[in-house]
Amino acid sequence: MNFRPRFVLAPLVASAAALLGLLAPAAQAATPPRPAPPTAAQASCLSDCTPRIGIVSAFGAEADLLLGRLQHPKTWTITGKRFTTGELEGHRVVVVLSGVSLVNATLTTQQLLDHFRIDRLVMSGIAGGVNPANHVGDVTVPERWALPLETFWNESDTLPAPCGQTGDLSCLGLNLAAPDGQPLPPFQHQFPRGTYLLNTANAPQGEYRFDYPVDAAMLATVRTLQPRLQRCGPKAKQTDGSVDEKLCVKEQPRLRVGGRGVSGPVFLANAEYREYLFKHLQAQTFEMETAALAHVAAANQVPYIAFRSLSDLAGAEGFNADVGALFASGLAETNEAEVTLSFLRAWRSPVTAVAHRHGGAR
After folding, report:
1. Residue 204: is the preceding peptide bond cis (ω within 30°)?
2. CB 222 within 8 A of CB 141
3. Which of 195, 193, 188, 196 lies closest to 154, judged by CA?
4. Is the pLDDT of residue 28 over 70?
5. In terms of Cα–Cα distance, which of 312, 311, 316 is closest to 336?
6. pLDDT of residue 61
7. What are the start and end residues of each CATH 3.40.50.1580 domain in the chain?
8. Are 295 and 106 in contact (CB under 8 A)?
């Protein structure tokens, strides 16, 4: 006989249901919160997934100084290029030499973001000066970077109208740069353009970008720095303890923060174009890599900043003894590395900080 004591089971089922109802809120409260979705830079990492600051150097001598300070270095070779991970001034980092040019900087930066989990990007190297008030040996930290040699080369200095309306390039998939609301004046019939940028935030439309602002938090940290910039490079010190003044620059180098940096696919030795950049863009420095890194950073939504040591006044005529002293004495790489290291010492980030043995964030 199949007998079911329903009169006994029913109260037990009800009691169990009530008990579960009481326990559910506690169980939900004990459940850890769901982690935030990964950023574009954290979505994947082909080689190493430890959060790091990516340091891209365009100057081999400076990269060597940083590599010499790395703790627990490990080298990763990717398409022939060396990426070195380790710890530097309390942060987990990866250091790589980009090589000169916009193309090399673009390729290297994207490889860095593809293969490693990069929380912030730092670009450093040497640059030509644009602002005549600055001096050889100064280290500049612009608040934004641009690519003014992305141009529409017209037959005259008249605003182009290839699509029918003056200044309209939309039928060509192009856009005239207008950082202050009006198209920039041309240089020898060349009108600066904005560069098309697509990322997950502005898709599917995308946008045209002329300026690439650096990260506000990183820039605020830079404004607090007091790096020990040298006037004489390490090679200026003689064996008897004296200093060879021929291996020193005349003016005490300073950290100069603000303004616009510009990049292009040319080595600038044209004083007329330098004057154009300073007059119309208030440019501080010119080189061949940072704006490319900035575009890749914006496409991947990774914050960045750049430090550039001034080697000369771009396009200046005549011999400048300071230029020879900067490179012959090792001053260029010494001061550039000092700013990078000072920034890392001052930067506070639990994401990339090296943990103490007892678990505290450094």
Report:
1. yes
2. yes
3. 188
4. no
5. 311
6. 83
7. 43-148+199-346
8. yes
pLDDT in tens, 54-70: 999 988 888 899 999 99
Q: Which carries the bigger pLDDT value, residue 90 or residue 11?
A: 90
Confidence of residue 319 (pLDDT cuts 50, 70, 90): low
| DSSP assignments along 219-282, one per residue | HHHHTT------SB-GGGB-TTS-B-GGGB-SSPP-EEE-SEEEE-SS----HHHHHHHHHHH-
Q: Could you identify the residue written with the tokens 């089922």?
A: 13
Angle formed by the axes of helices 290-300 and 102-115, to 10°? 30
3-state secondary structure of 191: strand
Q: Count other C-beta atoms under 10 Å from residue 129's C-beta.
A: 26
| DSSP state, residue 100 | S
What is the pLDDT confidence band of residue 21, given thresholds at 50, 70 and 90?
A: very low
Q: Tell the burial category of 72 from Cβ atoms under 10 Å away from its Cβ (0-12, 13-18, 19+).
A: exposed
- Nearest-5° Cα angle at 36, 49 to 86: 25
**What's the rounded Cα separation, in Å, for the pair 63 and 124?**
9
Q: Do β-strands 255-257 and 139-141 pair in parallel, antiparallel, or remain unpaired?
A: parallel
Considering the segment(s) 43-148+199-346 as one domain, its CATH architecture is 3-Layer(aba) Sandwich (3.40)
Give tens-digit pLDDT for 103-112: 999 999 999 9
In sequence order, which ranges of 71-191 are alpha helices (DSSP H)? Answer: 102-115
Q: Which candidate, 18, 55, 86, 29, places its Cα nearest to that of 336? A: 55
